[in-house]
Amino acid sequence: MKKVFEYSHLGGLEILKVRFPQIEKEIDEVIEAVKISRKSKRSREKSMKGRLLYSPKEMNRKFKEEFYKRGFEELKDPFEVSTYDGAKNIRAFKQVDFFKEKVLVEVQFGKYAFMFYDLAKFQYFYNKEKADVGVEIVPSYYLKRDMSTGVSYGEQLIYDIKRLERNFPSVPIKIILIEV
């Protein structure tokens, strides 16, 4: 994979460069190490029936392997939620896929709502002082065109963050757009 664009929200890119340069280097190495040589998913969707596409499952698996090789771990924070009537406690958790030295990283090839939820998780861990910066790795518009319908793209996420005018998220984030 290759990095084609970076966006810095509230100094996320600068914080990585100054305070976590080794981690920023490792993130770049992970992106470069993920090799997707061919489209391997045959679409069953009406609008793309039979067309070969890039497989999000394959890409996620390769990213996970590369991040874990470099010592990144999952960050999970369990908690309980009560039902509306207080009769039952339900175990739940917030979780980020990759974490190292107060840097959160998510790789998202899902629907747009999941990209935005990643930002909410970054905010959650930032507010709990478990993280200083988040990194969201997402497909560019051009990569998205060769994936299943419903997959979002980074340009839309960046556009919406700018329109929120620094109101959300209030955590420093670096967004990385990637392509094959």
Characteristic key phrases:
single chain, 180 residues, alpha/beta, six-stranded mixed sheet, two-stranded antiparallel sheet, 6 helices, globular
Structural description of this entry:
The protein has 6 helices and 8 strands; from the N terminus they run βααββαβββαβααβ. The chain is an alpha/beta fold and 180 residues long. The strands form 2 sheets. Strands 1-8-7-6-5-4 form a 6-stranded mixed sheet, sandwiched between helices. A two-stranded antiparallel sheet has the order 2-3. The longest helix is centred in the middle third of the chain and has 16 residues, at 112-127. The chain has helices spanning 12-19, 21-33, 56-69, 112-127, 141-144, 154-163; strands at 2-9, 41-42, 52-53, 73-82, 89-100, 103-107, 133-139, 173-179.
Put the structure in a nutshell.
With 180 residues, the protein is of the alpha/beta class.
